[in-house]
Design goal:
The protein has 212 residues and is an all-alpha fold. The chain folds into two domains: 64 residues; 125 residues, no CATH class. The chain contains eight helices and no strands. Helix 1 runs antiparallel to helix 2, helix 1 crosses helix 3 and helix 2 packs antiparallel against helix 3. It comes from Rotaria socialis.
Length: 212
Amino acid sequence: FGLACGILAVFILNLLNNELEIEIISTFGLAYLIFYLADVELGVSAVLAMVVMGLYMAKHKYCISSRVQLPIASTWRIIIYFINILIFMITGIILAHSLVGTQKHVDAIDFGYSIVLYLALHIARLLAAVILHPFIKWSGVNLSWKEYIVLVWSGLRGSMAVILALMVDSEKVIDEMIRHRVLFHICMIALLTLTINGTSSKFVVRFLGLNH
């Protein structure tokens, strides 16, 4: 579904020529429309659909007019910045309320498990980078081994993971203990990636000499 939507989005954008407002609104509207159709109407993973669509559009990025590419990138950067703020504010309030009742399901050893999971995620990212290297190269992106290190270390900051954790926590058919532990571990991993990876990424870039 995501691939089909990507093809459709590229086709629509190819019909436009240097129409700044229309192209910005089109990309924004298509993203919301496809997410809604995937999640509500079709019952498939909206997140995966958006990822696949985004990858296809990145491969055909010149479907966006040359004069519009810089303004549209700046616009989306601002939108993403404010959306991230809203995500962490809203989910922080909900998570604080949800975690009040987790004491009976979360033990001290779970903090240790969170650290193990945090380390395991970095190993998983490294393996994913190695396995996907041929596909990344095929897509036209040539990364050095230093850039792969930054790719593995930087990773994601947890906003999407936190949203997915809330979705799991809202599923009452899942055992309460499992829901609370999933919520706890994802919150801990998001906290660790924000405080450790987020603050040290710039030093890793400098150490590898990629800041020029």
